[in-house]
Amino acid sequence: MTNLLPDFSTLTLDQIEADILAGMEEQRAQWEEVATNPEAPTVANTLVALDESGARLDRAGAIFWTLASSIGGDELDRLQEKLVPLLTEHSNTYLLDERLYRRFLELSDPDPQTQWEIAEQIRAFEQHGIACPDKEQLRRLNVRIAELETEVDQRISKQLEETGLSVTDEAELAGLDEATRAGYRRDHDWFIRCRNFSTQLDQSVLEEPRVRRALLEVSVTRGRTGATDTRALIVELTQLRSERAHLLGFPDHATVVMQGETIPGPDAAQDLLVEVGRAARARVDEDAQKLRQLCPDLEAADWPFYENQLRAQELGFDAESLRPYLELNRILTDGVFYAANRLYGITLTERPDLRGWHEDVRVWEVKEEDGTALGLFLGDYFTRPGKSGGAWMSELQEAHPASGQLPIITNDANFTKPAPGQPLLLTWDDVETLFHEFGHALHGFFSDTKYRDSAGTNVPRDFVELPSQLNEMWAFHPEVLSRYARHYQTGEPLPADLLAAVVGSKSFGQGFATLEYVEAALIDQAWHREGTLPTEADQVPTFEVEALERLDLWHDLVPPRYRSTYFAHTFAGGYDAGYYAYMWAETLAAEVEEWFRAQPNGGLTREAGEKLRRELLSRGNSRPPLDSFRAVTGKDASAQSVLRRRGLV
Ligand SMILES: [Zn+2]
Hints:
By secondary structure, the chain is α+β, with helices and mostly antiparallel strands. It has helices spanning about 15-35, 45-50, 55-70, 75-95, 100-105, 110-125, 135-160, 180-185, 210-220, 230-245, 255, 265-295, 305-315, 320, 330-345, 430-445, 460-470, 480-485, 495-505, 510-525, 540-550, 570, 580-595, 605-615, 625-635, 640-645, and strands at about 165, 190-195, 345-350, 360-365, 375-380, 390-395, 410-415.
């Protein structure tokens, strides 16, 4: 399997660029061959031929995107600026080719998987404007929108490098542990660098209220001035997305986006968010009363600090006391990989001889229970300048069992790299992140679809978070938890009372966490529904606040998880009008989770794992995804399942 992994040590950006350019040309020739085929359209000469086209581009593109997000930096930024308009134009060439569209219209097939693929292709053509009266204008809009998204993406990456609080008096760092301080140390000050969310992790431990407030302030106001100002870009971008929706014959961008999704439409998204948001707000107000007992003049910046104290009071532990029991390697081997072994029989063996794109990247060989190769798994866990924020899964190569192609799948995170020889001790949130991203990885590894187009995580984006959110449940399973949560020095298991507290903590703090998410998701919807959009940069912050106030969901104590000026999901592309998708997918994940819990041993069995793999994880988009969901649970999802999962009922 070693020959599958690209040799990053010899790869140059020039070569990647050349491969992408040649790959596009190659694929356009393949499309042209299908479009001009004089024979009547058949599944083989149209659907299969198109599905198999573009292998070179896929491979080079996957390498490029992996480097652009995991390495970043000026050179890759410049290449991205150059390639994105070309790639957009490339995909337009396909989606606006009426000859191909008409060939699909003539196809039908008795095989349900093939029939569904035909329907999905036709839907994609129609969603992207095959019937649009002014295709030239559409092309111009598509190119400009992609340029703006790239620019926003790069400014937000720069914000992540630059945004933070400079502290010159060490006394102001009270509450931060030595390792964290050392990480922030610069020549003449300490620089508390902001993570991508509005509310900062360090607010939960910084003892000086002034410092907490200053930190939150720099966080929520980023992107409003200077070279990383994104406001004007956002104004133009949302206007153009709206214009394009009208050109396509839809009322707004949200409606266009939801065409291929599993949610019925924008109203359903808004209803779900508002229902969950109101339940969350009620919990926030209850929690705020408790926090005011600890801090009468409570502000948003103080919430995490006092929530931490309240957690200690109510659950008997504070977040920091858990850390010695949450060491990265142990969590991976005895937690994330162990749970996957119990459910699916797979094993992961580290291959220190294999190299990724950076010395910190680790490579594992993945095998089925019977020893059959399943692919390679790469982990790139440490933060560094230039790397995108947050955590994600990506694929260097997709699974396609029919042709013997094995997947190469990556998980990225942004943990602060410890000093040499020191263990990396994580927070509870980080643990859930590791399980979450590996859930995406499993979706990729188990893919077994006839067509590449519908493989693995190529499902609607409001479905793609189901396997990942579901996989978080195993972090809490007592058998898994007692295995990985061990003291990094003594190997002692997490004491029983702390363990019980962790299990019980799942619903703690969910009012705040849910509301900050719902607020961001509704801001994303507001920018993409019918109505009046801002035309001036300085209207951006007010627009968000007013949108939430109209729904009675603006809350002074709960900053939205992202304000627009650093909301990469919605303005850098990928989750535009689609940030709701996490919540919709969670309604589905919550139902599947309840199904697991009803099985023997809380679902941690090969039998339950196989059912999920067979009916859902292996299916990709080879049938309507909600059919896969129903095949496991036997029912439909509702907001109530999320409220139960989050302990908000
Ligand atoms: Zn995810």
